[in-house]
Design brief:
The chain is an alpha/beta fold. The chain has a domain of 103 residues: Rossmann fold. Helix content is 35%, strand content 14%. It is built from four helices and five strands, in the order ββαβαβαβα. It has a three-stranded parallel sheet, sandwiched between helices. The chain has a two-stranded antiparallel sheet with strand order 1-2. Strand 4, helix 3 and strand 5 form a beta-alpha-beta unit. Belongs to the small GTPase superfamily. Rab family.
């Protein structure tokens, strides 16, 4: 993905962002986890994609994010009694997260509010931006749309995580 960091500002600079899809295989086998773990080294951002029509898909995001953040090894990575994850596990996370829900077009209008409220809490747990997509409508990611702006801001955060220190000083100078 080619991304113009801070597009439209004097600091604008073009970067190449490499995206890896590690798949959503649910297997708890050590081999499946260790295979995915290869991709987690030096990650600079995480896009969590789930199916809005499948509640279990949304719930799996917690486990996958903890796995990617190398926090699923301790008992704290399990469900607590009310079925929610402990939000504190994400409180000190320095990795930018983006939550994308797909298949918005397949949710009946009567259920949309309920589903979107549930997923909004999910994104809040991760301290992440949320994008919900109607995959049949290209306007959902059209230039200038709120979703396109959220995606651009996410990529800006990923670039800052990779190339800049917290105080704004550049760590590396790549062209």
């Amino acid at each position: 993905q080619i991304h113009d960091y801070k597009e439209g500002t004097p600091e604008e600079k073009t970067y190449y962002i490499e995206l890896w899809d590690v798949g959503g295989s649910v297997g708890s086998a050590t081999s499946v986890k260790s295979t995915r773990a290869v991709f987690y080294n030096l990650l600079n951002g995480i896009i969590l994609v789930h199916d809005l029509t499948n509640k279990k898909s949304s719930q799996n995001l917690y486990r996958w994010s903890l796995e990617a953040l190398n926090r699923d090894v301790a008992p704290t990575g399990v469900l607590v009694t009310n079925g929610d994850y402990d939000r504190e596990q994400f409180a000190d996370n320095q990795i930018p997260l983006l939550v994308i829900g797909t298949k918005l077009d397949q949710i009946p209008e009567t259920k949309r509010s309920e589903v979107l409220t549930r997923t909004a809490f999910l994104a809040e747990d991760f301290n992440a931006e949320e994008i919900n997509l109607d995959c049949t409508n290209p306007r959902y990611l059209a230039a200038g749309s709120s979703n396109a702006v959220k995606l651009s801001r996410f990529f800006d955060k990923v670039i800052e995580k990779r190339y800049f220190l917290r105080d704004g000083n550049q760590v590396c100078n790549f062209s």
